[in-house]
């Protein structure tokens, strides 16, 4: 019995792992390298953010609470991004009853965590009171748990109640992502709203640097969500219709999903992860303002950093009286 040797792989390798080393099907090796790089970069950013936040809190204890919420939210976002890169390997490996639960659960759950963090950030920037401070990671976790329940329920129904092997069709996979797509769509709408406000509305911030950082952040946030939307439209179209129409289904299904994970992971990492960490660290290093709090752009009652003023009031609300004395000649 003669067994064929896969180019680039050793003898006796299980065929389910062939795309990790097969030089003839180079897509697996290329995406493996990109996913590994993204995973290491995400972990490096996460460790750097945590080390910087610890240093900042020790050197400036008075502002410890001002960065806690955004550091927690960014940590969850970077964990989700690193998880997306790690999940790529479960799609490079062939679909089996063992890899199926990992694919079904982690694909939707990790994307929901990333998009929940982006949506919570949009709400914070728009001035929603529930998303300020530690409310930002709280909102992200609340949105994220919904998808965890949905994915867990599907696995319990299939594996426990029906006692079937984990087999999922492409239609079922897309159906499981409906909530994730809702998070993505709502986040895109809110980011565009914040972009319009930051570009066309007057800012109550008293420093030009804060206005500039807010404008840049709104642009990057909108671009990140817009590119993510385009990626999701492409992979859903390919999975449901494109691969079948060109006669490449199911051969192209795993490569399409793997490309989706890697491409969207890098978009999230470069568009929001790296830029947000750099903006946070740079902004805090140069000023004593609250980090990336642009709620005053959209609400005249928002706090102005460093001024100790809780709201901007009109002369009528402050009780200021502007009366003209009869002894003053007003014609002067």
From TrEMBL:
GO terms for cellular component: extracellular exosome; plasma membrane; receptor complex. It holds the Pfam family 7tm_3. The keyword Transmembrane helix applies. Keywords: Membrane, Transmembrane, Transmembrane helix. The keyword Transmembrane helix applies. It is a multi-pass membrane protein. Its main location: membrane. It is found in: Membrane. The chain crosses the membrane at residues 25-58, 70-93, 105-131, 138-156, 176-195, 216-241, 261-281. It comes from the Eukaryota. One of its GO terms (molecular function) is G protein-coupled receptor activity. The lineage of its organism: Eukaryota, Metazoa, Chordata, Craniata, Vertebrata. This is G protein-coupled receptor class C group 5 member D. Residues 23-270 form the G-protein coupled receptors family 3 profile domain.
């Amino acid at each position: 019995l003669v067994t064929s040797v896969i180019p680039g792989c050793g003898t006796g390798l299980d065929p389910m792992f062939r795309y990790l080393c097969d030089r003839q099907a180079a897509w697996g090796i290329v995406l493996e390298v990109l996913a590994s790089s993204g995973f290491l970069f995400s972990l490096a950013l996460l460790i750097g953010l945590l080390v910087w936040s610890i240093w900042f809190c020790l050197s400036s204890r008075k502002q410890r609470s001002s960065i806690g919420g955004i550091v927690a939210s960014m940590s969850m976002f970077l964990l989700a991004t690193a998880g997306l890169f790690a999940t790529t390997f479960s799609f490079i490996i062939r679909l089996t009853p063992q890899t199926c639960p990992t694919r079904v659960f982690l694909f939707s759950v990790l994307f929901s965590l990333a998009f929940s963090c982006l949506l919570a950030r949009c709400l914070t920037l728009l001035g929603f009171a529930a998303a300020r401070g530690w409310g930002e990671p709280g909102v992200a976790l609340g949105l994220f748990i919904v998808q965890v329940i949905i994915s867990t329920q599907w696995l319990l129904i299939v594996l426990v109640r029906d006692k079937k092997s984990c087999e999922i069709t492409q239609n079922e996979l897309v159906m499981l992502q409906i909530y994730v797509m809702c998070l993505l769509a709502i986040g895109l709408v809110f980011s565009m709203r914040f972009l319009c406000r930051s570009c066309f509305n007057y800012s109550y911030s008293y420093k030009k640097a804060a206005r500039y950082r807010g404008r840049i952040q709104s642009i990057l946030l909108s671009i990140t969500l817009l590119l993510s939307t385009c990626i999701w439209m492409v992979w859903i179209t390919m999975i449901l219709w494109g691969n079948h129409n060109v006669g490449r289904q199911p051969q192209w299904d795993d490569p399409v999903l793997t490309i989706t994970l890697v491409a969207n992971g890098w978009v999230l990492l470069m568009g929001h992860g790296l830029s947000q960490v750099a903006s946070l660290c740079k902004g805090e290093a140069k000023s004593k303002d609250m980090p990336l709090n642009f709620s005053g752009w959209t609400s005249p009652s928002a706090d102005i950093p460093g001024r100790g003023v809780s709201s901007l009031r009109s002369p009528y609300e402050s009780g200021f009286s502007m009366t003209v004395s009869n002894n003053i000649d007003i014609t002067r």
